[in-house]
């Protein structure tokens, strides 16, 4: 897909991406050199918020691989969910003469300054999955349609849980737009039912281990909850571990978001009710293509590209496996 010459309108995109594993920061290059000279292979930096989550590993590796396929050297940088590390990566990238950045921010507001510094230095930035709250900094932002995806989850939640009862919500990172958009989409549906009562809403930072701890505390204070909505699949897995240890895994319905392979498998087994399937490989590939087109002189690029999310539940989970570029069957 080459979206650079489309009219300025939103496009809805579907794909699944192959889950891989990466640790640390490493590069894979073509035989050409990696200097900033015009006769050498240009370098693209892939700066991601974390590699401590398989979903972001897919995003990072897909961005790197797509850039390499387009003829660039590519290096992955892990910010470890730390804005100061992200800033250090941008310092390195700007000083080292990278040609572009494929970027997954740590914070919607806090990351703006880094993107603007890169822009001022002549290094275009293309956001993937997470957006920044500025329209004049990144060239383009390729983002999952989190709100609509969680509207669908909210509808399925009411269908499976019913129109009454207590439930809990595990939020992602505070300050992250995905956290807010997912929660807002979910509540746009469930808040229409006054007998569905949210008795706990706590952040677990999109982290599996933190979700386990938070869920344990929620269960102690609210032993009668019927369901839990988790803002990503890592937290859904942590919540499941806590519920299993408490002997409540069969009583409390779990809903996630991401489309992680292990969660899709657990949906098929009836252990988790539903998730929202994101397509990180498509977002990464599109970001790399946009960067390539921009570096070749194209300035007619969409500023924001929403990527559709698909609801995965027990009735259709068998259609979803590894991420690929063609979407579900």
TrEMBL record:
InterPro entries: Peripla_BP_I, SBP_2_dom. One of its GO terms (molecular function) is carbohydrate binding. It holds the Pfam family Peripla_BP_4. The keyword Cell membrane does not apply. Residues 44-298 form the Periplasmic binding protein domain. Belongs to the bacterial solute-binding protein 2 family. CDD domains: PBP1_TmRBP-like. This is Ribose ABC transporter, periplasmic ribose-binding protein rbsB. It is found in: Cell envelope.
